[in-house]
Amino acid sequence: MAKERVDVLVIGSGAAGAATTKRLADRGLKVVCLEQGDWVKPHEYPSTRPDWEIQLRRGAFHFNPNVRRRPEDYPVVTRGTHPPDVLMFNAVGGSTIHWTGHFPRLHPSDFRVRSLDGVADDWPIGYQDLEPYYDQNDREMGVSGLAGDPANPSRAQRPTPPLPIGVLGETIGRAFDKLGWHWWVSDNAIISQPYQDRPACDLHGKCMFGCPIGAKASTDVTYWPKALRQGALLKTRARVREIAVDRAGRAAGAIYYDREGKLREQLARVVVLSANGIGTPRLLLNSKSGLFPNGLANSSGLVGKRFMVHPFRFIEGVFEARMDGHNGPFGIPAFSQEFYETDLKRGFLRGYMFQLERSFGPLHHAWGSFVGKPIPWGLEHHSAMRRRFPHVIRLTVLGEDLPEEQNRVELDPEAKDSSGIPAPRVIYGYSENSLKMLEHAQRSAVHVLEAAGAVEILDSGVIQPAFHLLGTARMGSDPKRSVVNAWNQAHDVKNLFIVDGSCFTTSAAVNPTSTIGALALRCADGIWDRRSEWT
Amino acid sequence: MANRRWTRRKFLEASSGTAALITFVQPAASAVFTAPERETLAAAMDEIIPAADDMPGASTMGGLDYLERIVTQVPGLTEQFRTGLATLDSESRKQLQQSFANLPRTARVEILTAMERNLAPDFFRALRDFIYEAYYTRPEIWQRLGYESHLTDHAGPLMKPFDETVLAQVRTRGKLYRETT
ipTM strictly over 0.85? Predict the structure, then answer.
């Protein structure tokens, strides 16, 4: 087989890989992307079937690869005092296939946590550096929302207006107002009006089980069709074993298994790694060589270290009136950042946000919903069910996770994927700061739910950490204390770029996907601006 | 907590209450469970989710068949159910000299409660959750519950468009974030 050297090889086709590929293909570069999953066909989504809720427990669309066990998945071993429930998806679009679409941005202060609050580290970039890329990513993904939120820097008018917030949004909004607390209608990467060949959201809900109409922005329906039209090449079921290096210590390309399990090599002038906060350190640690005995780009020893997931807690209020949480897009009609910025009087550093969330259907409620409180069985069952469904408002607490050395991703000595590639092991425990924050958040949540008229409160307690995979190849200016620089360029390997959740210096207290997309677009511009160095 | 044992006297008290022995159509044997196992399972289903408040019991309207289909699809579940149903029945015979299905309803509830609390909590949880699944995945149950599922290949619900005026109060607040350079 002829070994063509392409301009750029991108590993992973999710939120970051898709954005980087499209941006560089727009410039006329020859880009190849390797993705270990397949395209998901709209009719395969379980959200069209009456038993869609069973995917919360088992099946090919379960969020956790250890449960789902598709051939393209890899196992993730979990350990520690709070072993995480690892959620990710391997397909064209990556984990945007099953995300909720919530699209907040980091605050300016999130980039300056050392300077402002004396913890963790500042990012080597600021909000202003990322702002134009946030805007660009909003336009590419398609966003609904409303500009003017006093808790965030002003931003351009959203590409489409806000989605309906429903009875539950209006109810909780009045309660936030009553307490004088901040709230705002959310930015979601779900379009409320037709936008760029995509139809408006039809308010089905069930977004986490795939949006077959394409109103939710998974990158298989946003960036990818455009990238392919621009000539990018996407190879599916291509599972990368390692990033190859040449004698000079530069990235030469990747060695991967194709659909038939045959080992192949893809050569490139520049390699971009976007395999998520667990997959990325796994691949770097698996790319050992004489020049890089501790794994690629790991002279700092920080590859895999400082893994962050966001402390979460769910608090539900039960109301006498119907809240109809099963109607409308699943994720985040509204949010509150009243407790986002640091206030030392609260007894912890940094902050958290409340997300108002909708709910799944009757089965998930019967099973205990997010709070793990099943509807009782027996004679009381039907009346208890009718009291709770559909009468619940859920507030999800999303707190900032501070980076800690002992929270980490490493290679498991035994577990392997179906190609024999060593699997990752994640070790994680909540910090004291996170636990204090979650207690404070619980009290505030109860306060606002009661102000809204809740007759009963259901609390998940401290739950197994889950959702966002961050921090394992951190950005920084000092090569001894970080893995990539301000342009996502590996300090140790000049033609290797790492952009996804792993490059986050700190986690902030917002969902990361809009920032991942913005960083990827900015990284692509950095690669383009330095093209004389690789072409 | 202590495992409450049944006495002959208590049994008589229970069976003289509101729930007399309930007769129902005996489920036929199938590929998965024997006829007595199906009978035990159906009786347990109708105690976990009983026919009440205008809602049907869990074993009816295809619920039993759904559950039987599902246990073969989840690795290990058929065995767990077979063992659990045997425990349910043997406890009933040991304590009350009757098969579980032949017990009066209050007695069935006592036995199930003992299963849940200490005899077989893992099995009980699986039993309860799969009965809930068999019940709440069926459109005929949704209809009675008043749940419109809006599956994604059907039309979505009608919702009131967002009204900006609800944000009037919060708009009056000053800047709530910290500026940086």
Answer: yes
